[in-house]
Every structure is written in structure tokens, then in C-alpha cells.
Amino acid sequence: MGKITFYEERNYDGHSYDCSSDCADLQSFISRCNSLRVENGNWMLYEHPNYKGHQYYLRRGEYPNYQQWMGYNDSIRSCRRIPEYHGTFRIRLYEKSDFGGKMMEFNDDCPNVYDRFHLNDIDSCNVQDGHWIFYEEPNYRGRQYYLRPGQYRRYTDWGAMSPRIGSFRRMGFF
Question: Which family does this protein fall into (predicted)?
Fold first, then answer.
């Protein structure tokens, strides 16, 4: 079971809200988020309601201000708990939309997509097993995108504004 506490002010001050499950709209509980504590579990935070906008992966720890989780502002409007997963991991990446073009299958983390795939753009993917996070830049940096098992026919299906993926890693593997 996971638990995360959101605070409206920096350094854990002001109105707070405890959350232990997915929440598609935090606006009725907090007006902004300037600090938070992840007591247990792993979480994705989203800038907008319904799991839209910039995404931020957080693990257990204390975050006294939004810069600590690489936030662009104090707007956190939804959150999703990432379930623990101890099975196999498998993802297929495609250079073109609708699973077209060159395909490569992975079952482990990849710190640099270009080095292994010789492409910077991933237009579609099929998450067959496990949960994954894509990063726009190599070495797990830049904007983040959480992918659960399923088919993503276009990069917009995982919330990206461009097909550029620099790295990715398995999630829920502890």
C-alpha cells in the first residue's frame, strides 16, 4: 500500500492531503502543491487532472519544494500509484506509428536509446509485460512518461508532444 502527503506550502506547511490510491482530480483537496512526502510506494504525479500534462516519477522520500522533483510549477492535479511488480518485463519499440518500421524488443533498462536502437524517435510501442517509464533525454533525464501494459499506437498515446525518447527503465521493480 502506498501513501503520499501533499502540502500547499513549501517545507511541509499549510493545508495538507493524504492520499493512498490513484486520484484523477486533486483540486478538491489541495489548491497547489509546493512540497510533499512519499511515505511508501512509487508514484506518478501529473500537472493536470485526469493524468494529463507533465509527469513526475517519485519514490519514497521527502520533497520540501517542487524543484526537488524537477517540477515546473506548483501545479499537481492528479496522481497514480505505480504497483509493485516482480514478474518479467517486455516492451516492443517501433520507429513508426501503428507499430510500423523497425522494431526492437527490450526486457531491461536502456540508458541510451540511440546507442541501442540507432534512432531517437519512437513513434509507437507495445508494453507486453511490466510497467515502464520513458525519458526524453538519455540517462533518465528530461520529461517522463509512464506506460502501463497495453498498446500505444502513437507517441501522443503516452502523453508526449514529440516521439523523442532518450532512455527508459522498468518500474515497480524493487
Answer: Belongs to the beta/gamma-crystallin family.
